[in-house]
Design goal:
It is a single chain. This protein is α/β, with parallel strands linked by helices and about 300 residues long. It has two domains: about 15-140 and about 290-305, Aspartate/ornithine carbamoyltransferase (Rossmann fold, 3-Layer(aba) Sandwich), CATH 3.40.50.1370; about 140-290, Rossmann fold (3-Layer(aba) Sandwich). It contains eleven helices and nine strands. It has a five-stranded parallel β-sheet, sandwiched between helices.
């Protein structure tokens, strides 16, 4: 029998969720998507919950999406940017969060540059932790909204072929997407320069392809990742121009395929590098659907986590 509760107290990574958890989040998101398309877009579901958004890295879409999801649920929200906080004076992560929790905060949404920061924090503070991205490790809500968008487009994820193209090595989106899509029964391929594909990737049971056209002709959905120059301490390819020639997608490439495919992107888009504007804004694109679905999926995750404390 389907449970109505998540199996985990926190949302730290896709690896901690089972298939029932993911399906429950999607079914709850279906209800919230109907809510946010009403004239009155708020529900009182988290009226007595206080959530702190703690971002140790810059973020626009994820931060705004979480804040909007929280406000749509009527939660009280406080936001914290590490660059203007006591962290810059040397305060530890645990001290920072415990000081915030002393103000009677129930849940923490955290982005941090180090892998495992959310797991570490969950073991040392008395609050529910939602991982909004930890280094190049995981970004669970992005993977959930991507899979939810595929489900919405095709009716189901099982059996679909999804290729993730680009900087797999430095991407937290790639790992979370691989884990989520596989749990839902999809086939997953990664595509990019060999220097940007981790050596361990084959152990995850994904296909590996270095030829973009072969990958695009294989897939139903191409999820295009940006090159994360801020995480690269050496050059992994000769130039952005050469990368674009080999792995950038434009409308002519899509028109020359032997099938129709869908284009996704977690953002931010480097237009003219991984995809051109006519692709990002064209009929193949599902990018704005991902943004809309992100609010509903994050509403669902926050609501279900909070309901574990009832």
């Amino acid at each position: 029998m389907r449970t109505s509760r998540l199996s985990s107290k926190h949302l730290l990574g896709i690896k901690d969720l089972n298939l029932s958890d993911i399906e429950l989040i999607f079914e709850t998101a279906d209800n919230f998507k109907e809510v946010i398309n009403r004239p009155i877009k708020k529900v009182p579901s988290l009226r007595d919950i206080t959530i702190a958004n703690i971002f140790f890295e810059n973020s626009t879409r994820t931060k705004l999406s979480f804040e909007l999801a929280q406000k749509r649920l009527s939660a009280d929200v406080i936001s914290f940017a590490a660059s203007s906080s006591s962290v810059s004076k040397g305060e530890t992560l645990i001290d920072t969060v415990n000081n915030i929790l002393a103000m009677k905060v129930d849940m923490v949404v955290m982005r941090h540059p180090y892998a495992g920061a959310g797991v570490f924090l969950s073991k040392h503070v008395n609050a529910q932790i939602v991982n909004a991205g930890d280094g190049a490790h995981e970004h669970p809500t992005q993977a959930l909204l991507d899979a939810y968008s595929i489900r919405e487009k095709f009716g189901e994820v099982a059996g679909k072929k999804i290729v993730i193209v680009g900087d797999i090595l430095h991407s937290r989106v790639a790992l979370s997407n691989i884990l989520c899509l596989q749990k839902l029964g999809a086939e997953v391929m990664v595509c990019g320069p060999t220097t940007l594909i981790p050596k361990f990737i084959g152990e995850l049971g994904v296909k590996v392809e270095t030829d973009l056209m072969k990958a695009l002709n294989w897939c139903d959905v191409a999820n295009m990742l940006r090159i994360q120059l801020e995480r690269q301490d050496i050059k992994y390819f000769p130039s952005l121009r050469e990368y674009t020639m080999m792995y950038g997608v434009n409308k002519q490439i899509l028109d020359n395929l032997n099938k129709e495919i869908v284009i996704m992107h977690p953002g931010p888009i480097n237009r003219g590098v991984e995809i051109t504007s006519d692709v990002a804004d064209g009929n193949h694109s599902m990018i704005l659907d991902q943004v809309e679905n992100g609010v509903a999926v994050r509403m669902a995750a926050l609501y279900l986590l909070a309901s574990r404390n009832d």
